[in-house]
Amino acid sequence: MFLVYIASCLQQDRSIYLVLLEGDGVAFHEGHGDSPRVHPNSGARRLLESHDLLLQTTLDSGTYTKLHSFKHHINGFAVYTTPSQVARLRDMAGVKMVEKDRGAKMMTTYTPELLSLRKGIWAQEGGERNAGEGVVIGFVDSGINPLHPSFAYRPMQTFTSNLSHFVGACETGPHFPLSSCNGKIVSARYFSAGAEAAATLDPSLDFLSPFDADGHGSHVASIAAGNAGVPVVVNDYYYGRASGMAPRARIAVYKAIYPSVGTLADVIAAIDHAVLDGVDILTLSIGPDDPPQDTLTFLSIFDISLLYAQKAGVLVVQAAGNKGPAPSTVVSYSPWTIGVAACTTDRRYSASLLLGNGTIVDGVGLSGPSFGNGTILQRLILAKDALKINGTFPRTPEYIEECQHPEAFDPNIVFASVIMCTFSEGFSNGTSTLGAIVHTSKALGFAAYILVPNPSYGDYIAEPIPFDFPGIMIPRVADAKVILQHYQDETKRDEKGTVTEFCARAAVGEGRVASFTGRSPVVSRFSSRGPDIIDMKRNLADILKPDIIAPGHQIWGAWTPISALQPMLTGHNFALLSGTSMAAPHVAGIAALIKQYNPLWTPSMIASAISTTSTKHDNLGEVLMAEGFQPNSLYASTPLEHGAGAVNPNDANDPGLVLSSGYTDYISFLCSLPNIDPNIITAATGEPCNTHLSVYPHNLNLPSVTISALKGSVSVRRTVMNIGNNTETYVGAVIPPNGTSVNLYPTLFTISPQETQDLEIQLSVTQSMEKFSFGEVVLTGSLNHIYGTGAISGFFSYDSVRVGDIVVKNQVGEGAAAECISGFTALDIPHPRGPLW
């Protein structure tokens, strides 16, 4: 689902602009000590008054509307005005940055079992009734459906934790009374000034309240923190029980996306309030879908906003984007957030088609069977053979073969028959939908429908969608040919080619029963890939993105019956969706479990633990694979697709070692960017670039090392901390990438609890390479920690913690190379050949 930013014709010279000012937000004013989230109201009032004064003295009266003041974690505002007026702001003293709003989009049961939470980290924290207790997860999204059982308060399971660190509020409005904040939902706010300026809102859908008219925000929140054991029932069929990753975590809602529009102004205002309220973790399955036009990716006001959220102690989890499998498509750029890519699970919803000759053809569906539980064969008819003879409808694919219009068919022919519709031109360009086929089927009384591909357009991508009419999607041309051959063999025609008798038969089988077979996880086709970029020119950044993969393909989650942007899901309380929107809350919920168990860990420590304990093997014991451009195509995944690997929550709770970074480290990283003007960093952050802190970008203390243009040799430093309770001895080992030699110092060290150890990694080019190649650095501990062992799990007698993968791209030319040592889940899945609903 995509939101389009459209300016009114009467105000087309006005736009929304984001303005960043000198001086800190009140969270970081002097005197706040170790509690940056708590601040006096007087400080916020003074900032607000200064914003108003600046606008009043700079811009002409009547030419602008201030939409938001950002007061807490950053100092700035959003204003709706003209380019000529905003030009005045750019030149004013105290104004650091002015950026045009780029708009914001959504990035869109079984996974607790898949990730072994019940016997793992949930058991450590007292079971599902306690998992996530005391942690608040904030969701900047499309709101929440407070009536959904995933968010219900359960009197028999009272919350025991003290949320003294959190101070939220419950804003009310349409469909959202005060009782919506029920103890599970501890806070709910909405931000609409940007949306109201950008578009004419539809009062029947764009509710000015925290209520979710779309479903996306509810889906995301339920994945991270939905109640445990909620029955999933769709179209009167029971699919099982759903649980969030941290079912006892509290939910704080910050609605900033509307069915009609989304703006960064509202998103940043929501982030500002979430930090003020005191959320522990912030989930962003929404955001800008493209890099900024006139600044570095790291220095957009949106990313600077996330930097200051991290500085305030909030762990930010972002959806990586849904523009895969093309390279350099991630929209989570910065090292101070966790960018989550999407992968599949081993759950499959398969359907089958039984032909009259006994052949069974597999397909995709999420519906019940045709007559007789799919055992009674009905007439099989190709749509174009069932058209009205003298019909006046247009002779276009959507009428003659795509089953979009009931009036095109002879009702006497199609009644109680299995009709073959074709995935053709209309589906390819997005004008035809699966929903229209279901409507046609119901209107004319089909026994069932089949959607087969037009060979001219090749295979198509089919996602299971729950619908209340028998049907099946056959995405492969080869399978479609089998069906069509049976049809042609059994169908009688006259000399003009007109059908005289339909003798082919078919039946659609049950498609709602899940099977748990096949390779997983696999990086999803739609999931955005690295390498990370630094600007619109696609120059590579020395940061590995995405950070990690998590389940994001065919995920059950809470929904809103209004379903403003998904007509096929109207009336449903649950939806089966795919996207990095679904992957990000998996990681946010897992981070909440880690935060509960380790309350003093900083955001970067949690991020490191998730990264270094990830796995790079699938359920078959083989290296992770990734889906390619062509349907059904797989190739060996790399850190550019999967980051550090697949999230492994049970091991992440006890990683042994962590690599941590703080605010000053990130400033040093920014100051070390190639060819950077220090004044730009100071303008964006308010911090000077101290010469002694300016190192190389690859020296930021991450569980990954990325060097985008290595020449000759380079020495990289990393510092690990023992966060365990015992002294431990580690042995280091390296698998170097092709064309590169790598040496690690020291290779053996003993480290006591809370102590640190510096590591030096020396990388040298041995051969020029045109493509990325990959290696790995592993530290093996002497104690019985449970660590992800990466690519060399069988080489050691102890379990191992991965410090990082090595990714190398040796450039053509003598002595040039690019390297990466990587360590370590709104955006819904786009259909490459058009939407299916």
From TrEMBL:
Q: Which CDD domains match?
A: Peptidases_S8_3
Instruction: Enumerate the spans annotated as Inhibitor I9 domain.
Output: 48-103
Q: Which domain of life is it from?
A: Eukaryota
Q: Which UniProt keywords apply?
A: Glycoprotein, Hydrolase, Protease, Secreted, Serine protease, Signal
For this protein, the record's PROSITE patterns field holds:
SUBTILASE, SUBTILASE_ASP, SUBTILASE_HIS, SUBTILASE_SER
Q: Which residues form the Peptidase S8/S53 domain?
A: 132-618
Drop me one GO molecular function for this one: serine-type endopeptidase activity
Tell me which Gene Ontology terms the entry assigns under biological process: proteolysis
Keyword check for Signal, yes or no: yes
Q: What Pfam families does the record tag this protein with? A: fn3_6, Inhibitor_I9, Peptidase_S8
Q: Locate the active site.
A: 141, 216, 581
Gene Ontology CC terms, in alphabetical order: extracellular region
Family annotation (Gene3D superfamilies): 2.60.40.2310, 3.50.30.30, Peptidase S8 propeptide/proteinase inhibitor I9 (3.30.70.80), Peptidase S8/S53 domain (3.40.50.200)
Mark the transmembrane ranges.
Answer: none
Note the InterPro entries from the entry.
Answer: Peptidase_S8/S53_dom (IPR000209), Peptidase_S8/S53_dom_sf (IPR036852), Peptidase_S8_Asp-AS (IPR023827), Peptidase_S8_His-AS (IPR022398), Peptidase_S8_Ser-AS (IPR023828), Peptidase_S8_subtilisin-rel (IPR015500), Peptidases_S8_3 (IPR034197), S8pro/Inhibitor_I9 (IPR010259)
Domain annotation Subtilisin-like protease fibronectin type-III: ranges: 699-781
Location relative to the cell: Secreted
Which family does the record claim for this protein?
Answer: Belongs to the peptidase S8 family.
Official protein name in the record = Subtilisin-like protease SBT2.4
